[in-house]
UniProtKB/TrEMBL annotation:
Role summary: Binds to actin and affects the structure of the cytoskeleton. At high concentrations, profilin prevents the polymerization of actin, whereas it enhances it at low concentrations. By binding to PIP2, it inhibits the formation of IP3 and DG.
The organism of origin for this protein: Dictyostelium firmibasis
Protein name, entry field: Profilin
Family matches, as InterPro entries: PFN, PFN_sf
Coiled-coil region list: none
Pfam family, one: Profilin
GO molecular-function term, one example from the UniProt record: actin binding
């Protein structure tokens, strides 16, 4: 199992001075927020991500009217970020997971996660 925790996200996905505040399950009622990234994901589950998010490889992700370009991609994750936001997307046995953090805390975490969830659901339809 690969532990998806703050250290993993910092090392593999976001820059080192980013602090992760939480995650949500895409499609869950009320944008269900899960614990502080202490869940685990198997290597097989990690491999599914690229297939799910192939549509984000070419086009930028638009969230709340802002453009986010994909800056890093492997078989295990795809990242979209700009100067104030980091977003990681991946899948495990709970479903499709989004991890997001506003570096300047300009938007409440719950609001950001709802915007993120809505944007991804629209893109997948």
């Amino acid at each position: 199992m690969v532990a998806i925790n703050e250290e993993f996200i910092k090392k593999n996905i976001l820059d080192e001075n980013a602090n992760i505040f939480g995650a949500c399950i895409i499609g869950a009622p009320e944008c269900m927020v899960i614990s502080k990234l202490n869940f685990e994901i198997s290597n097989e589950e990690v491999k599914r991500l690229t297939e799910v998010f192939t549509l984000f490889r070419e086009a930028p992700l638009v969230i709340g009217g802002k453009n986010f370009t994909r800056t890093k991609s492997t078989s295990s994750y795809i990242l979209a970020k700009n100067d104030t936001t980091g977003i990681a997307l991946f899948q495990n046995n709970m479903g499709l997971i989004a991890v997001a953090k506003f570096l300047d805390n300009a938007i409440e975490p719950d609001r950001l996660l709802k915007i993120l969830q809505g944007a991804i659901l629209k893109a997948l339809l």
